[in-house]
Structures are given as C-alpha cells and as structure tokens.
Design a protein that fits this description.
By secondary structure, the protein is mostly beta strands. About 0% of the residues lie in helices and about 55% in strands. It is built from no helices and 11 strands. Strands 2, 4, 5, 6, 9, 10 and 11 form a 7-stranded mixed β-sheet that branches. A 4-stranded antiparallel β-sheet has the order 1-3-8-7, with no helix packed on it. A hairpin with a 7-residue loop joins strand 9 and strand 10. The mean pLDDT is about 95.
Length: about 120
C-alpha cells in the first residue's frame, strides 16, 4: 500500500523559507517519479516541481524556478521541497504525488500541507 505523508507547512513572512517533506512508503522507488503540486483557494491544482527517484533529474514550474528546490533522500525514502524567497502568491495547500515513470497521471497523493505566506 502506497502512502505519502507531507509535513513542514506553516505560516511564514514574505521573503522567508520553508522546507516541505514527503515521506513515501510502498513505492517501487526505482521506477517512480515524485511531484509537488499546490492548490490555492478557488484555483486549480498546479504543478510545482518533480523529481525522478532513480536519476535525481528534476523539473520546475516557471513560477518557482530559482526559488524552490526539490531533492530526495534515498536513505529516508523522503522527498523535500525547499522553498526560499516565498511570496504571498505561494500561499496554497501543497501536495506530494507519485507515479510510475512514463505514466501520464499521478496515481498516488498525500493529504496536503498548508503553506501561508503573509505580506
């Protein structure tokens, strides 16, 4: 059974930093891609960043490129999203998701963690 558990959200002032964690279990890590998504109130869920577990190859949305960094710790089966220079428009519920590399849709989702950036 696949489980994704996010943590690390909270309230931070603009310009500050947060690090989100996604603890994963039950995955076939060697063939998995992990993604971070976010959903602000009244808006659609948007892609933020992704990493291929095996290679460490990463990708980012233009809105976060240069400010956010996705990384994985294979020993802890955890993916991190380091968020720097946060802006009020980064306020959202952040979700971790996983899928098999090559599949179009993400199959597994965490419960989400709230990030609020005050101006």
């Amino acid at each position: 059974q696949v489980q994704l558990v996010e943590s690390g959200g909270g309230l931070v002032q603009a310009g500050g930093s947060l690090r989100l964690s996604c603890a994963a279990s039950g995955l076939t890590f060697s063939t998995s891609r992990i993604g971070w998504f976010r959903q602000a109130p009244g808006k659609e869920r948007d892609f933020v960043a992704t990493i291929i577990w095996r290679s460490g190859s990463t990708g980012y949305a233009n809105s976060v490129k240069g400010r956010f960094t996705i990384a994985r710790d294979s020993a802890k089966n955890t993916v991190y999203l380091q968020m720097n220079s946060l802006k009020p428009e980064d306020t959202a519920v952040y979700y971790c998701a996983a899928k098999t590399v090559g599949r179009r849709e993400y199959d597994y989702w965490g419960q989400g963690t709230q990030v609020t950036v005050s101006s």
